[in-house]
Amino acid sequence: MTSLFKTEQLKKSYVTGDTEIHALRGVTTEIPSGELVVMLGPSGSGKSTFLNILGGLDQPASGKVLFKGKNLANLSDHELTYYRREHVGFVFQAYNLVPSLTALENVALVTEISPNPMDPLEALAIVGLKNRANHFPSQMSGGEQQRVAIARALAKRPEVLLCDEPTGALDSETGIVVLSALMKVNEAYATTTIIITHNAAIASLAHRVIHFSDGMIHHVQINETRKTPQEIAW
Ligand SMILES: Nc1ncnc2c1ncn2[C@@H]1O[C@H](COP(=O)(O)OP(=O)(O)OP(=O)(O)O)[C@@H](O)[C@H]1O
Ligand SMILES: [Mg+2]
Asked: Of the N and C termini of the chain, which has fewer Cβ atoms inside 10 Å?
């Protein structure tokens, strides 16, 4: 199987006053193309730092990230912007929709600047919101807004979806709907999808579970059989 990402000995620390925090202490791992990957670990264990480095939002102090064999550190600023814009779809806990634009317009905002976009309606259809295209964010529930955010991330046909606690602000039932949408995207388009969560039950949905602790990967679990969102008990 080909790797979408390979990381080698990623390290990152933050100095605040006279304390140094080691956010990443040497993370070496591989993310195969097309997988649904879940990252679990205690608060402060380095998950978001790692995800942001994969997405080109942050740089490691040392070590490297290879995206399809290319070292992100060798990209120019222009190429890095292009990488973030064309290859990576981000989904965060906050939906970050433009309140004055409809669901369709929020998605179209991205497809207008993308070289090979999906029809915004198709993107909304895959997350089950075709009939909400003309609704404003204030007219939608949290789970619906998060699914619009997923449609927006997906509509540029990214090679990877990076999701930092996408269900963190949702109740468990709504969280299942959002996770189902992410699984559907992963299956329909083979988009490599990496999801950070605090909910260990989500792990059984994934092909691969990366357990973080204290700035390191503690272990990686490969699921031979996966559950569906409906099967996981919350
Ligand atoms: N900009 C920053 N300045 C200082 N310290 C930081 C900064 N960003 C992260 N850290 C520290 O690095 C460590 C790892 O943070 P990170 O956000 O990656 O953890 P996390 O696993 O995502 O945690 P959570 O589950 O709470 O989101 C933490 O101790 C955090 O306080
Ligand atoms: Mg985090």
From this structure: N
Integer Cα distance of 182 and 140 in angstroms: 19
Whose CA is closest to atom 5 on ligand 1? 14
Residue 129 main-chain phi, psi, to 5 deg: -125, 25
The CATH H-level superfamily of 3-231 is P-loop containing nucleotide triphosphate hydrolases (3.40.50.300)
User: Which residues contact residue 176 at a Cβ distance below 8 angstroms, ignoring those fewer than 6 apart?
Assistant: 229, 230, 232, 234
Structure tokens at 26: 């040497």
Average pLDDT over residues 149-155: 95
Looking at the DSSP bridge assignments, the partners of residue 11 are 25, 62
Residue 96 has pLDDT above 90, yes or no: yes
The helix/strand/coil state of 110 is helix
Report the C-alpha gap between 198 and 212 in whole angstroms: 11
Q: Are 229 and 205 in contact (CB under 8 A)?
A: yes
Residue 215 CA to ligand 1 center (angstroms) comes to: 9
Looking at the whole model, is its pTM more than 0.85?
Answer: yes
- The residue behind tokens 């490599």 is 192
Mean pLDDT of 155-169: 95
**What's the CA gap between 24 and 39, in Å, rounded?**
14
List ligand 1's pocket residues with C-beta within 6 A: 14, 16, 21, 23, 41, 43-49
Q: Is 91 helix (H, G, I), strand (E, B) or coil?
A: strand
